[in-house]
Design brief:
Radius of gyration: 34 Å
Number of strands: 15
Mean pLDDT: 85
Distance between the termini: 60 Å
Helix content: 25-40%
Oligomer: single chain
Keywords: Chaperone, Cytoplasm, DNA replication, Metal-binding, Repeat, Stress response, Zinc, Zinc-finger
Largest sheet: 4 strands, mixed
Family: Belongs to the DnaJ family.
Cofactor: Zn(2+)
Low-confidence stretches: 78-85, 99-118
Subunit structure: Homodimer.
Strand content: 25-35%
Structural class: alpha+beta
Pfam family, one: DnaJ
């Protein structure tokens, strides 16, 4: 079982941002590839702690991670071997230690001079909503309404975080650079400014609605159209319905993941349907027509004389509607189960005995039985 991000950084789940950053910096210094050249294990560990730090150091990502749990979050594509949001481990390292990019040594010894790159608008996180639907809804399509919590851009400040009539001002701690230089031992480290979080500016008067966050938590109600033919595992993308973006960035997307409840009659295999239909003994022997269920109602199926139990009959175009335009529908396969009569009365038993005696006189009635007996005769001698 994969370690969660808190375990990887060796911090408690209620750790502060400062504690998370300190834990990351300690581990990053220990496992950085430049200090462990040729050590694959250290390289993998460095990637793990980078992924963990990128998520836990971001309030929105951390909140979503806590809600979904490690397994669901990483399955959604946010926790891979590199940075969870697309940043490389080296970029995460440089950001955590105040570097503007480049390699390990240039970050530590003042490389990459000039004005730092401030955090600009960024897209919000994607959300995943799991929706259970009935088998019939998957076959014919349906319109549903879902509700879920998400962050929305604050309507009072339009995402700026500033109260009306106020604005951001240059950060006095870093003079708008977004970074500060600290001396540690015999070298200097450029760090992200703790007062402005690297933006180079601070909010003079925080918005009274969102308290300077630029976003507020709301419950979103959304109509969802389920197209005919969806199956368990299908994902519907709702553009712009995810978490609000930061600093005016676009919202993320919402992915509705479908789970289809099992049906009491039909089993699905791609675009085909399968079902078992019991038929009477005499219908199997003589042939005839039987009524069978389909997703559109009952229909007649012709049973050829002499059909054997377990035989599948194909009904073209009676299966699942295709999600691909122009492909029509799959097929339905009916597996015939010949039911042997039970609880016979005296008259029925007598008739069946007479039938058996007639069959014994005609070897052509049971060709499979006769063929088997020829092969097995030597075992009976």
């Amino acid at each position: 079982m994969a370690e969660d991000f808190y375990t990887i950084l060796d911090v408690p789940r209620d750790a502060s941002q400062d504690d998370i950053k300190k834990a990351y910096r300690k581990l990053a210094m220990k496992y950085h590839p430049d200090r462990n050249q040729g050590n694959k294990e250290a390289e993998d560990k460095f990637k793990q702690i980078s992924s963990a730090y990128e998520v836990l150091s971001d309030e929105q990502k951390r909140r979503r991670y806590d809600q979904l749990g490690h397994s669901m979050y990483t399955q959604a594509g946010r926790g891979g071997g590199g940075g969870a949001g697309g940043m490389s481990p080296e970029d995460i390292f440089a950001q955590a230690f105040g570097g503007g990019g480049g390699d390990f040594f240039s970050s530590f010894f003042g490389g990459g001079g000039g004005r730092s790159q401030h955090n600009g608008p960024s897209k919000g996180d994607d959300l995943i909503y799991e929706l259970q639907i009935d088998f019939e809804e998957a076959m014919f399509g349906a319109d549903k309404e879902i509700s879920f919590p998400r962050s929305d851009t604050c309507s009072r400040c339009n995402g700026s975080g500033c109260e009306k009539g106020s604005s951001r001002k240059t950060c006095p701690q870093c003079n708008g650079r977004g970074q500060v230089t600290m001396s540690q031992g015999f070298f200097s480290i450029r760090q992200t400014c703790s007062q402005c979080q690297g933006t180079g500016s601070i909010i003079e008067k925080p918005c009274s609605e969102c308290h300077g966050q630029g976003v507020v938590q709301k419950t979103r109600r959304l109509p969802v159209h389920i197209p005919a033919g969806v199956d368990t595992g299908s994902r519907l993308r709702m553009s712009g319905e995810g978490e609000a973006g930061e600093q005016g960035g676009p919202a993320g997307d919402l992915y509705v993941r479908i789970f289809v409840r099992k049906h009491e009659v039909f089993n699905r295999d791609g675009e085909d349907l399968h079902c078992d239909v019991p038929i009477q003994f005499h219908v199997a022997a003589l042939g005839g027509k039987v009524e069978v269920p389909t997703i559109n109602g009952k229909t007649e199926l012709t049973i050829p004389a002499g059909i054997q139990s377990g035989t599948e009959l194909r009904m073209r175009g009676k299966g699942v509607p295709s999600l691909i335009r122009g492909r029509g529908r799959g097929d339905q396969y009916v597996r015939v189960i010949v039911e042997v009569p039970t609880n016979l009365n005296a008259a029925e038993r007598q008739k069946l005995q007479e039938f058996a005696e007639l069959c014994d006189k005609d070897q052509h009635v049971h060709p499979r039985w006769n063929a088997f007996m020829k092969k097995a005769r030597r075992f009976f001698e």
